[in-house]
Amino acid sequence: MKLYQLRSKQSLPISKQKAWNFLSQPKNLKVITPEHMGFHVLSGGDKPMFPGQIIQYKVSPFPGFTTKWVSEITQVEYGNYFVDVQLFGPYALWHHKHFIHEIEGGVVMEDIIDYKIPLGILGQMAHPIIVKKQLKQIFKFREEKLTNLFGTMENMPSELIFDSF
User: Fold this and answer.
1) What is the number of domains present in the chain?
2) What SUPFAM superfamilies does UniProt report for this protein, alphabetically (predicted)?
């Protein structure tokens, strides 16, 4: 089974505290997820993130397919990073690290996601056609939404990189 990695960076002209306050609230994930995905927090999203927190979502990654996604927040370093791991959901593995780095005039939000697709060779064949395309669309939406909410930084392009191992 192939392991994939997505790395994303986006600069925002806000304080580290403001970025943390937004990102550490599970309910805000709905704000930065495309509406067509039908994303809803079912439980566990009523408090700021803490290690051991279990959050249940409902999501429709593809038309006609709705699934439950259960994540655990496994690590939190206040103001700097947190890690969520899928316990149950559409991926064979989902390990998502969220970092906030302070820079002159704002912050860089960095995401590193290691993931595996289920269904063996069929999943690998679907990755470039369906999964990678969907993840690009989600992160593009997120970038645009965060820019609309917080503004943009001149000469600080965002990055979205996919690798496989």
Assistant:
1) 1
2) Bet v1-like
